[in-house]
Structures are given as structure tokens and as C-alpha cells.
Amino acid sequence: KQYCKDMRFVGEVNKRNEYKCTFDFTSNWINYLKKGFGRENLNSSLEGTYHDGFRDYIYIKRKGDFYQFRINIVQGITSHSGEIEGKIPINQSNFTFVQVEDSQAKDSKLDCSQCDSEDTTDMSESNKCKLNFKIEPYIIEVKEDSNFFCGNHGAGASFTGKYRKIK
Predict the structure, then answer these.
(1) pLDDT band at 50, cuts 50/70/90?
(2) What is the DSSP letter of 153?
């Protein structure tokens, strides 16, 4: 209900629009609950689509000896958005992803207990985006490390969230 009140400045302010917004939001929320908490037609592999119940998604595909992830977010009434991609090691339930952007090319590097120490030696504190992942069956929890600036999204957005498998 608050979401629809916040959205009133977008269109004509009247009860019909507010009720339609509330109905649409409720319908979308029910669909998310069915997919995010129901396990019908979902396999237990990590590969798939994950959703936070609002407008944020994680997409995961198996690529040989690792998984490739992409997080897309759109948050707030002014639609702050962002995107990040990287690798998830096989059989890791907790790991830290660190993205470093080089001035010549964008290069994602993985910081984990199985990585060589040389993988992280060239990372300056100013250009890191650090995400902590906790992977459970059907759920991925992401926490953006607040000590590092993540320039992959708008000021009003964050990759932090609990994402449930829906596909």
C-alpha cells in the first residue's frame, strides 16, 4: 500500500489508479510467494533464476568448472539500478566476490580461500566492489560490504538481499 502511495506522483492522482496499483502489487507479490516458497518444478542445482520479491534478480549459469552469475537490481521510487557479473566457485556455500575494474578493460576477479594470493595483490581499496555470498538450497543471500564503494549501481541501490530461486 505504501508503495502505491509513493508512486502517486507518477500518474494521475485518483482512487482508481491507487486501487489498480495495489491490486497489481498484490498479484505480483502472490506470484512471487508461490514461486519463491513453493518448490514445484524447481531443481536443486545452483543454476537458475533468483528473485528478491521486488525488482531484483540473480541469474546463474554453469560454465564448465564454475558458475557465472549476473545480478540486476532496480530499487526505489526513482528506479536506481545496477548490474554486476562474476564467477561462483563450484561447491562453495560461502564466499566473497571482489570485482576490480581496470582502466583498460573490465576484469572480474574472484577472492576466495582457494584462489592464489596473487589474484588479489593488485586491488586498491578505491576500486573494489566486494560482495559476500551465502548459498543455501533455493536461496542466495548477498551482502554488499559497506567498507568498499561499489560503483556498479546508483546511489539509492544495493546488491544486498535475500534472493529465492523461482526458475
Answers:
(1) very high
(2) B
